[in-house]
Write a structure and sequence with these properties.
elongated, 114 residues, homotetramer, mainly alpha
Chain lengths: 114, 114, 114, 114
């Protein structure tokens, strides 16, 4: 508990049972959560193989760059899954909850400089 | 054996012990190899924590997107380390070896669509 | 006329006077339209100066790359203005109109491979 | 002359006749200079059409985003032309001039955060 991570901020009091946006309790759609996890596990395996590659003194720079590019593509794919789920479940419905301003601000923050 | 592909270059013949790059035996500078590996291990740890995050039904999309963006930044940082080592050790010296055409072609292939 | 494509949306029938988007008549918020135009005009001026730069036989590659990077940043900034206006005016309100599926699909298409 | 731009820095004293890197006098290969200019003129025409598009109150956000993405692709393409010319003419030959450190540093600066 020494270091507070983003994951810590996600902790929900289960007895509360109500998920409001201002308390960060909008939840990810289960389908996109599972699909994103699956993709990230594949990306992690790929990343592991680059780390192994780098233990070999004969590793060649351009091969490493190519593999890194592939992993970045996989992460971008996982990001698209998460983004689509978010747009469908939370952004498209913002006006019905009345939290449009916060929803748009936090999403634009993620897009900044990308 | 005249032209090696990316896939070929990833395959190391263990009995041979020497990994060749289009027959030039260009190896990654040890310093950039070790620094890139260190950065990728950190990125892998971060990726692990996103996978764990996604096991929590209360995970919030925007938190996941933020973490993914951080990991992508870490991979980009590792890529910069590898690229700098490659430019210094292999590209800047290409004219002294006479393999400019291959060196530039394979590097441009990595940059394509980026 | 049930499904309009991107190409259709760019064509305005002048006699009709109304530009329809998948029959919802969604228009860009005036403020983001004007601010995006202003930014793009600045980017265009910058792009003009790169074209002029390239007429000089003494132009240096890295200076051109730096200027291109600046213009790309300006276009990204204009894109952020347009995206924010779109999220606020059209995406956050989608559930109140009932066109969530189309709104999300067309937005994800823009994000793809980015 | 009130504002010093990157283009100003390119000014070469014609009587000098020697182009050294430290004085920013490495010149762009003519072919890549002309091809990059051609591509940028096309991108500028495309950018013009987006500015015109934005004068229409019926402009639709996603159409603008799509067009911006196309222009950014065109700029990236021009950047690839410039980069390839630079790698061939200046980076691959750096060791023969002895300016590897500067050549790599300035190129890495362009790649940073990209």
């Amino acid at each position: 508990m020494a270091k507070t991570t983003a994951a810590d901020q996600l902790t929900v009091l289960p007895e509360q049972g109500i998920h409001s946006h201002t308390d960060h309790h909008l939840c990810m759609p289960e389908d996109s959560r599972k699909r994103a996890a699956r993709r990230l596990k594949i990306a992690r395996g790929h990343l592991d193989s680059i780390v192994t590659m780098l233990e070999n003194p004969d590793a060649y720079c351009v091969d490493v760059l190519r593999q890194l590019k592939a992993v970045q593509g996989a992460l971008a794919g996982a990001g698209e899954v998460v983004l689509r789920g978010h747009l469908e479940a939370h952004v498209a419905t913002a006006a019905t909850r009345g939290d449009e301003a916060e929803i748009v601000d936090e999403l634009m923050e993620v897009f900044k400089y990308v």
